[in-house]
Amino acid sequence: MATRPSPGRASGRRARDSLLAASFLAPAFAVFAVFAYYPLYRLVYLSLYRPNRNTFIGGSDEWIGGSNIIDSLTSSTFLRSLAVTAKFAVLTVPMGIILGVLLAVAADRKLRGIRIFQTIFSSTVASSVAVASVVFFTLLQPEAGLWRNVSWLSIKQPGSALVAISTTAVWQNAGLTFVIVLAALQALPSEVREAAELDGYGPVRRFFRITVPLISPALLFLAVVLVIHALQAYAQFEILKPTNDAQPLLYKIADPEGVETISSRAVYSLGLFVVSLIVSIAQFGLLERRVHYGE
Amino acid sequence: MASNPRSTRRAADLGWYVLLTVLSLVILFPIYTTFIRAISSPVPYLNSIKSGGGLTPVELDWGVFWRVIKEPGFYRAMLLSAGTSTIIVAAQLLTSVLAAYALVFIDFRGKKLAFALLVGTLLLPIEVTLIANIETVRDLSLFNSLVGLTAPFLAWGFGIFLLRQAFLGVPSELRDAAELDGYGHLRFLFRVAVPISRPIIGSFVLISFLAAWNQYVWPRFAADEESWQTIQVALRTFGQREVDQLNFGFAAAILSALPLVALLIIFQRQLIRGLTAGAVKG
Questions:
Q1: Cβ atoms within 10 A of the Cβ of A198, count?
Q2: Smallest Cβ distance to B250: which of A34, A138, A262?
Q3: Is the residue at B181 inside a domain?
Q4: What is the pLDDT of residues A207-240, one digit of tens each?
């Protein structure tokens, strides 16, 4: 914010500004250094070296290198949990978006009492994954759940466990998907909303031809958020306890039963990082090219 | 008869009401069944569901809510969640305001890199860094502690992004005027930039609180003593009780979500603005 530039003063000011900027940025960077950047380094290290806990006796960490990475990435544990995670995403993301769009389209109109419906639809935003899991326990519990006789929603059958768990996630995400799609619909310029009624399109065609392309950035954003949610799914699986073959990647990373080695868990963590990275990069790529901007 | 536009309109409205009601029932159904499970005496309920019932309460046990509230395992966990969430929100707000201010209003070299490094941390969520962070917290003897439960969340890449957007929207005339009045950076930050960004800060606080209150994975593994369980982690153990106390967990789940439902209803607008930041308008 220099007003009168004189050379000596300007450089003094610049130094002072840099110092100020550094001190303003320092707290955030300090937290990230310890709990975000360092862990990334540490995960790479743990994938390559087996830590030697007997540091008093001496002896350094043991190089296990590439073989650990390859063994972990090709282990049935990793491949199966990755497949479960991918399947979980397939089961929850499209359904989540469809439900969100359905709720938002229904609630995007001027009707008496519409605010009540909007509040109900957004209510699951207040639910945590743990609460959602307890809530769905009343339906999915093998002994006393209301859906205990619905065979394709059984959490104790290998073929249906994941489908059953996905109902929890779809329900819990409904609030978020509804809120985002509704906001996108309401942000459409009124000319667009009115013009579509005049050009002779039926409501269904109008919706798919005009509305969907215009809200596609919001839908894409939602898809990415839901995929990331699916990649990070954990609590539902610990609380609802489906069959062992329906455990996702984060379950193997967190490893509540303590059956995995730290070296393979480190590789799994990096695997999760890389998959999330790919999803995010794909989002940017799609946003750049395909998705229609409604500006 | 149907050619009357008014009556067509009314019929269409009726159709929408029917759809809205059906959808509401779908969303509310699991909440309803949880409520039924909470207020029914557990053993009679199990008998009732075996004989085809289950949709209506049996042998009402309203006392369960009172028993939950009186249980130290419940209210301590709620207080711990409130404490950790408050610390996290306050710290995230402070670190984000300062960092975003530097990124927008102060000239320094390497600004783009700093921004990329800060927002890039969104790619390193706690799920990815979990095992390394657990190790760190153990090594620093922060296991089972307030610091351990909150430390990884004291700064937040998305929060910095959100406040940077807010600060970028501060009109340049205000900066010029503040400069003429001889405002330094600190005064400009607290007298102009922060007050003018109040709406976004409101949304920031809400979604930050929501995320902090609802988190599961980190508190689950950063503590192993019962007295250091946040409410989300405690909910799992509430389900593992004697048969005749099985409604306790359901009542606890309902009570644990009530504060958030209240916040949601009171601050609906701020919450929606926070959740949609980044979605609408790409």
A1: 7
A2: A138
A3: yes
A4: 888 889 889 888 998 999 999 999 999 999 999 9
